[in-house]
Prior knowledge:
Layout: H1 10-17, H2 22-26, H3 31-43, E1 48-52, E2 65-72, E3 75-81, H4 91-105, E4 109-114, H5 123-142, E5 152-157
Parallel strand pairs: 3-4, 4-5
Antiparallel strand pairs: 1-2, 2-3
Amino acid sequence: MVILSTGPSPATCFKHVFPNDKRSKVKYAHTKEDLVRYTIDKNFGGFVHDRALYTTQCDCTMRRRIDHRKLIGGTLMCVETDEFAHRSYDPRDEEIRYDDLVAYHTGRMIFIRFNPDGKGVDMEDKLDRLVDEMRQQIDRIERDENDGPGLLEIIKLFY
Length: 159
């Protein structure tokens, strides 16, 4: 069972407190991504949410964002919330994005691509499965078992 303990984002609160404000009409509520964020925050510490990726040798020209990320050892553990499996995204653009992120981080990366809209499983069970997968991948990183070929691993859930 998933319990949300950190509450909604400030933008979501604003929409509920001021539903007739013109800003409430245009602000998109990332309810699925927020739900994933709350679940990650409840179960894990130290994940950065939706911030541009900078490094110490940064020239700050690359401002790619990752929904949720945490540096564990030399591996960047990432979770992306892919509403509707990002079907409308150009696959080549997604590939370029990965190339940019790997080149910028210059270390191993594990991406869990989580589709909250996959059919046949309710959201609570999907979130439980996400937490289980994250634990498995963190255990692999901590045991230094994510040493396969290449710097990037992509795990897709509910595609």
